[in-house]
Amino acid sequence: MKVLEHIYTSLKVEFETQYLTEGLSREEVLTLENQSNYFLPPELLYAEGVEYPVKYVLYPLSSRYYCIGRGIYKGLDSLGRVGNYLFHNVLFDTKELVAHGADPLAVLHKLIKDNYFVSDSQESRPEEVSLEIENRPQLFDSLTAEKKQNVAKLLLLFTEESIPRVLVVGSEPKRIEFAELILSELPPSIKYMTGIETYGYGQGTSAVISCIPEEKEYQGTYGEKIQVQWGSSESISFRPTVPAVDSAMLQHFTTLDHTDRIQFIDFLFSLKQGSASIVHFGELSKTSQEFFALRFSASLLHMAIRANDLSKVELFAGNLGESDWKQLAKNPIVLDLLYAGNYGFLPRLTQAIFSEKTFSNISGNANFERMVLSILQQQHASENQGAALAVQSNLGAWISAVKPREEIVLQLCAAYAPVWSQETSLAAFADSLSYLQSPAIAFYRELARSFGSKQFPSVLFSLPLPDNQNALHTLLRKICSQKQSDIMKQMKKHTAWFEQLSARSEGSNKACLNILPLAVSEGSKKGFFSFLK
Predict the structure, then answer these.
(1) Which of 93, 59, 54 is closest to 70 using CA atoms?
(2) Is the Cβ–Cβ distance between 101 and 68 less than 8 Å?
(3) d(C-alpha 330, C-alpha 323), whole Å
(4) How far apart are CA 248 and CA 284, in angstroms?
(5) DSSP H or E stretch at residue 92
(6) How crowded is the C-beta side of 471, counted as CA atoms within 13 Å?
(7) Bigger pLDDT: 469 or 243?
(8) Pair 395, 359: CB distance under 8 Å
(9) N- or C-end of the chain: fewer Cβ atoms within 10 A?
């Protein structure tokens, strides 16, 4: 790819730009000049036979360009003044670097290998730089367990609200190694906005990671930066102490492979910045998804709601607490998305809605009506049991609040009927049906009331029998629960009605055998069984 260049050194009056490729704005040039600095300890300015450090810098110049530069000490300038240096900056299009997956340190190694950097502006050099870069070894994976833990602590600090500033102390190859180690483990969202200098002395640098030699003459005051002693020892010393990192997060992070580590930091960084997308959650490895689901389920849920994207909620639904489900239950937009998606966690959400009685949000929602019906029809399925109990307890309140269509109510009654028992809630359920006046609804209303009393309602004998088998079995169960004398009187009085009931119950004794054991005595069983014959 084509690159832009900038050379900065001491000229006749002061340090000035000696060479500049066209295309840079004045602001970008000023930034280059401010960042192109090289200082030495005063006692070394006049020293002879000293091998002066080489300074490499990597930083985002602007939204357009990423700078990779080299600074070298030149000694005396043309006027005999000490402290002269030359900076050669190579500017890459940031978008192309990202598109090629070109790690800045890998590009730096290629520039060094190809002898691209110059010592004066007259040296020739290629107009383009190839981004076909050989893969660099994964330094993190080669570390000892203790070093991995310490580097991981530092890497995870890059996920806080502000990126930490780090000062690295070590020999020249070790300093570059550390910078490469850190940068190679960061995702593009952080990597290309993280400034690095492999040698620094004095003030004025804006680098996130700044390195200095081990020699005492280079040591100084560097403010609040985290100082890292990076050498060949098995451990890394921090000064001041690095803030504590969640031990489970640290352990999980150090066991991931390179790609997963990058995705882990990227997601954690964007999550804490409030800019993460629930879509990116699906890009994490399965183990990392489980990790984030366990610790950040509430944040993930908020992201899903903000993005109106619930496609990944199923991945962490098992980690949501009561307050999370209640929050979902109160969001009408979410409900529309959910019930159109047929997600596996819908029973749990329905349970929250009925427990909270947040019925105003789902008034007239046909998808929700179908969900309630499905839960009642499959109430013995393990994933539906909790939802079914919540629905049964508050079904009457929902019908009263929403007043669904009669066809829906009839289906709900038929599905609910098999679990009716002598509970006071059935009376409230019966009352909730009063806004509908058809004979079919009246049958369910009176039958529900009868389960809360000791009497078999005589009004049932004037109402048409339902076709639904669940409803018929509920009716049979109620009949069998009556005293033998009471039910026999009714049988003699309403012979045609009981004959019709027998016929509707598929005309077979088998249809009644599952109901008859609920009768209060053997006599009533035999009497009723005999009648049906």
Answers:
(1) 54
(2) no
(3) 11
(4) 17
(5) strand 84-93
(6) 23
(7) 469
(8) no
(9) C
CA-atom Rg of the chain in angstroms: 38
Q: Which of 177, 165, 183 is CA-nearest to residue 240? A: 165
Which tens digit of pLDDT belongs to each residue from 102-140? 888 889 989 998 889 999 878 888 778 888 877 777 889
The Cα angle at residue 133 between residues 131 and 137, in degrees rounded to 5: 150
Q: Is the pLDDT confidence value at 246 over 80?
A: yes
Token code pair at residue 344: 């596996």
Token pair in block for residue 410: 């009839």
Per the listing, tokens 């280059």 go with 32
Closest by Cα among 375, 384, 385, 358 to 412: 375
Say how many Å lie between the first and final Cα of the chain, rounded: 93
Q: From CA 27, how far away is CA 22, in angstroms rounded?
A: 14
What are the structure tokens assigned to 414, written together?
């038929």
What beta strand segments (E) does 133-223 contain? 166-169, 196-197, 209-212
pLDDT at 511: 47
Tell me how far apart the alpha carbons of residues 488 and 480 are, in angstroms, rounded to a whole number.
11
Judged by average pLDDT, the poorest of 157-161, 174-178, 427-431, 438-442 is 157-161
**pLDDT for res 519:** 46
Query: What is the DSSP pairing of strand 237-239 with strand 226-229?
Result: antiparallel
Would you tell me how many other CB atoms lie within 10 Å of the CB of residue 193? 14
- pTM score: 0.65
What is the C-alpha separation between 211 and 353, in angstroms, rounded? 57
Residues 479, 413: Cα–Cα separation, whole Å: 18
pLDDT of residue 238: 72
For residues 8 and 22, give the distance between their C-alpha atoms in angstroms, rounded to a whole number.
15
Q: Element (H or E) spanning 89, and its range? A: strand 84-93
**pLDDT tens by residue, 54-92:** 999 999 998 899 999 999 999 888 888 888 999 999 999
Q: CA-to-CA distance for 532 and 491, rounded, in angstroms?
A: 11
AA letter at 210: S
CB 315 within 8 A of CB 284: no
Q: Which H or E element spans position 181? A: helix 172-184
- Give yes or no for a contact between 75 and 104, defined as CB atoms under 8 angstroms apart: no
- Give the sign of the dihedral formed by CA 341, CA 346, CA 352, CA 353: positive
Q: What are 291-337's pLDDT values in tens digits? A: 888 888 888 887 777 777 777 787 788 778 777 877 777 776 676 66
Q: Scanning the structure block, which residue is given the tokens 């629905």?
A: 391
Cβ atoms of 116 and 125 within 8 Å: the answer is: yes
345: nearest Cα among 374, 289, 384: 384
